[in-house]
Every structure is written in C-alpha cells, then in structure tokens.
Amino acid sequence: METAELPEPQEPQDPEPASETSEQPATGNLVVPVEVHRPMTTTTSNKDPPTPKTFIPGLQPVQTTFSSTLRTYPTKKVKINLQKNQIKNPPSDAISAVEFGPNSTQFLLVSSWDSTVRLYDIHANSMRLKYNHDQPVLDVAFQDAVHAYSGGLGCTLKMYDINANAETIMGSHEKAIRKIEYCSSVNAILTGGWDAAVKLWDPRTPTCVGTYLQPDTVLALSVCGDKFVVGTAKRKVCIWDLRNMAGMFQRRESSLKYQTRCIKGFPNEQGYVLSSIEGRVAVEYLDTTPEAQKKKYAFKCHRIKENGIENIYPVNAISFHTTYNTFATGGSDGYVNIWDGFNKKRLCQFHKYNAGVAALSFSHDGSVLAIGVSFLDPAEITPVVHDEKEIYIRYVNDQETKPK
Predict the structure, then answer these.
(1) Is the bond into 90 cis (omega within 30 degrees of 0)?
(2) Whole-model pTM above 0.85?
(3) Which segments carry the WD repeats (predicted)?
(4) What is the DSSP string of 152-182?
(5) Which of 23, 87, 253, 286 is in Cβ range 3.0-4.6 Å of 391 for a Cys bridge?
(6) What does the angle CA 361 – CA 323 – CA 6 come to, to the nearest 5 degrees?
C-alpha cells in the first residue's frame, strides 16, 4: 500500500511539502484498551530525516516507510467567532455523536455521555426536544425527518418519534451499542455492539431481523451504498453486502497499525476512509482489482510538534461532503481538517478548539458542518485546561471544501 505523510502546520507557518522519511520500530509493551482517547507522545530530532520515535509504554512497535507522493500546498487556519457559532444548552457531559437530519440544514441530533439525546434547531439556536436513556448514549441516527434512533451503554436501541414525542424500545444487544446507521437501500437500521455483533432492524415492525457475528468488538460502522463496513478491535475490517447477508463479502485487516477509531464510506460508494488512535487516516477502495488497490494510501495527521516533542492524537471523527466527496477529520488535538482524498490534498484547517473534536457532521448539501467539542478522556483535563463541552456550527464555502 502506498503510504504518504502530510505535515501538520506549525503556527504561524504554513505546512512544508512532505519529504521521504522512515520510522524505526518503537519500544514498549502495551495492551491498548478499547476506545483509548489520550494522546501518545514521541520524541523526534530536528534533523531530516527524523531519528527513531519512542512511544510511551503500552504501544506496539511500528515500522512504516513514507513516500513523498502526497501533494500539498500552503493552507491557512480558518479563524471563526466561536461564541457566535456556539449552540445554546449543550449537553452536560462529553459529546459522543452529532447528526444532521436528512435533507436538512436546520435540525441537528446530538448524543452525550450525560445519557441524553437532544434535537437542536440551529437556525433559531434552540433545543427543540430532549429524551433520556438510563446510561450514556454513544450514537444516534435519523431514519427520516421525524424518526431518530439512539443507543449506548444501556445496550437498548430506542426509536423516537419526534412528531408524536414518543419513544419505542426496538430491542437490545448483549453489550453496549457503539454505532447506529440507517440503510436507505433496504430501509433498515444497522447497529454494531461491543458484543461483537451487528444487528439489522426493521423500523416498520419494529424488530431485529438479523444478527451477524463479527470477529471482535465493534468500534466503527458505516454504510457504503448497498454495502456496509465494520471496524472491530484487533484491527479487523469486515465488509458486508446488504443484498446477500448469508456471509461476509470481504474480510480485511486495517492498513493502519493501531486501533481503529472511525470509518466512513465514500458518498460515491467506491470505498471508505478509516482513522486510528495514532494520528493517521487511510483511504481504501472496495474494488479488489490490483488497479484499484494501487490507489489506496494513508497519511499522518492531527499531530503537534512542540519543543522537539511530537504529540500524536486520535482521529475521532470523519464526515464527508456529499457533493464534492471531500471529507473532514476531527482529532483530540482540537483541530478540524478538510481533505481532498482523491487528489491527496489538505484544503484547510480550522482554528484550534478548546478541547478535542469528538464528533462531526456535514449537512446533506455540505453547506454546514456541526462540530462536537469535548474531552473523551478525563485524563486530558488538567487544572489549566477547561473542560469544554460545546457544539459549534461552521458554515463552510467552496474554497474550504471543493477540490482544486
């Protein structure tokens, strides 16, 4: 696989072109727990190429060769008035997911570790409704403009009718529900759980119509046309075809060396983007022909160098601009980057937020980006760091999102 490095900008300088470097194996023994959130620290030399990097204890050795094929050009940080774009009445605990309504730039669904699901009208900057779970909520999804689904540590999948202001218990997993997706091609709800199962739900009944075992704990899930992609613990990637669920369509291993954090399918249904806890993103293709597989690549991102120390942060969230097939990533470093994955360019980087970026969602037309900002690990909160839990709305333009 082609792997390329995209340099992070060092304020106030613009990023420099990627150069050919190599990494030596890092030292340390580790067991990475499920859903690790804290950044990893490495030490580097100021010389080019860099000297071997040493990860903190608990991380497995990595050896990767980087090439200089990723094209870059100077980008500038986009500064915005955070207070002006801040949603009122945010959750009281960490934000787990944000999701725009279908065909809407107005209504935003938000789940949180405070065990609530909230619906916001971003035009009026007001909360329209709120309903509760018994335990923290890890994900939400819209079926249509008036039906929302949510689940989390309580293991129960809820359907909420926004017009009737009523909830229905659909069913449950044996362990926490980590991801929820609506599949328009079959008009069904998909859930992935820490019980290593993906379940398919019929919203008309409402009942579970199929349970599909995965190799390990489900950490990420995304629909990609008539297929869906599952990322599990131990870096497994499973691809299923909704037209034939008798067996798994493809089984792969993540091209990234560390735990999967997020997966999102291309709007054009050609492939998916996968991120890890170790500040990297991989662009993958579903077509298994050698010609298609030559196009896949990975790159570094969400890393900050300070005083010779490179802090490496998880890439927590990915969201696609459905018109341009560009995508945004959000990391625990507090930055949002927008990328042109097909041309291998970074288009822009937003100004740093006061906490990690936990969740992202583009509206259906790509004109608005919702940004959930909160620390996902209490260890990141110190006496000098504000424990922020906010939702920001960013109205984006073609200069920031359109391929050049």
Answers:
(1) no
(2) no
(3) 170-211, 315-340
(4) ETT-EEEEEETTTTEEEEEEE-SS-EEEEEE
(5) 87
(6) 70
